[in-house]
Amino acid sequence: MTKEILFVLLNDFADWEGAYIAPSLSCGVEPGSERKYVVKTVTVTKDPVMSCGGFKVLPDYCIDDIPVDYAGVVLIGGTRWFTPEAEQIVPLVKDAIQNEKLVAGICNASVFLGMHGFLNEVKHTSNALEYLKAFAGMNYKGESLYIDEPAVRDGNMVTANGLFPLEFTREILYALEADTSKKIEKSYRMYKTGVWEAPEAE
Predict the structure, then answer these.
(1) How many structural domains is the chain composed of?
(2) Does the annotation count 62 as an active-site position?
(3) I need a surface site. Which of 58, 95, 115, 201 has the fewest CB within 10 A?
(4) pLDDT tens digits, one per residue of 123-138
């Protein structure tokens, strides 16, 4: 039975930041491989949201009707993570952390995690340490745990710079144990280099 991964989308969300992880979860890490997860979209209300590139998304859930048995939360970056609208996502993130579910945030969504103290006790990254400190404010006290890498995974928490959606995808796949490390790395190389590697003989 597939488990639901919730993609949280606010208006003006960044199209590319979820573009690799969504099909890797919903279709399997590589064609024909086991599919353990399905992607569902969440917004603050049930109204459609528009990406910064102009794609309109009709959400599966609003913040008030999320099922309790979801497997993780992926916060897709964009320009609205510093607004009152985003504050309504805080209880969902708290619930996921308390129940040891995946929490992943990229670009400004990683800053949002820092704003609310969610990065103070885990290794993490963002668009740059100075950027994170400038926008996260006084609640961010995790500077000593900041790692200047494209994406960082610490337990169930994954964070990434907004320019590295492939690395974000790879760390989420590992955190969810979506497939073998061999297949995860092969998929990463394929998207990174544009070279398809034939399946190995069993």
Answers:
(1) 1
(2) no
(3) 201
(4) 999 999 999 999 999 9
